[in-house]
Write a structure and sequence with these properties.
By secondary structure, the protein is mainly alpha-helical. The chain has one domain. Helices cover 84% and strands 0% of the residues. It has eight helices and no strands. The protein has helices at 3-23, 33-37, 40-66, 72-85, 88-97, 102-129, 133-162, 166-193. The protein starts with a helix and ends with a helix. The mean pLDDT is 92.
């Protein structure tokens, strides 16, 4: 399979997942500001999941530009990533309804962490698929950033489940901002060097 075909398939599935997120938003009880304000947790959960999926998509988009080839292992890892990503609308809906629940926030954390681990595995697989030095260096650097990202999520998930459940969602936000900042800095440096 060409990397373009895999990238297009992943783009389509992620776009569908992002669309389903908005369909899961609860409607206000009445057309008033107070009714919309009552749904602030729903909108925050939606925005967080959308932001996270967008960050994931841009990261994968950049990876497809760097790598020349993909093999069967990368394809199956990508399908695994899409499996966990497809749980985002369900997990986000649960967080919207049970924001203070340690079980629900823990489940959301597991979905995000599992998706991130799949991304790390994809980057490492791409380094094997395309052994050019520039590709290997890029994939290892980005997967290293993602290891830090997943550690932030794991620490916040554990602390959130044990002490204050919303900390899981906050950890996802902090990790997303971290990865976007360091990745964008790295991409600019990689483009300038290569």
């Amino acid at each position: 399979m060409s990397k373009e075909r895999l990238g297009a398939f992943m783009d389509a599935v992620i776009a569908i997942v992002m669309t389903v997120l908005v369909l899961e938003l609860e409607k206000p009880a009445e057309p008033t500001l107070a009714a919309f304000w009552a749904l602030r947790i729903n909108f925050a959960a939606y925005a967080l999941s959308f932001l996270w999926l967008a960050a994931m998509w841009t990261s994968l988009h950049n990876a497809w530009h760097v790598a020349n080839t993909v093999c069967g292992r990368t394809i199956w890892l990508s399908i695994g990533l899409l499996f966990f990503s497809s749980l985002f609308p369900y997990a986000t809906s649960l967080v919207s309804t049970y924001f203070e629940s340690a079980v629900v926030q823990g489940f959301y954390g597991v979905v995000v962490i599992a998706t991130t681990v799949m991304m790390i595995l994809i980057y490492r697989s791409l380094a094997n698929d395309d052994p050019r030095e520039s590709t290997v260096r890029y994939m290892k650097t980005v997967s290293g950033f993602l290891v830090i990202d997943v550690l932030i999520k794991v620490v916040c998930a554990v602390l959130g489940v044990l002490f204050w459940p919303p900390l899981v969602s906050i950890g996802v936000l902090v990790a997303a901002v971290f990865i976007m900042i360091v990745r964008n800095t790295h991409i600019k440096g990689h483009l300038a060097a290569g």
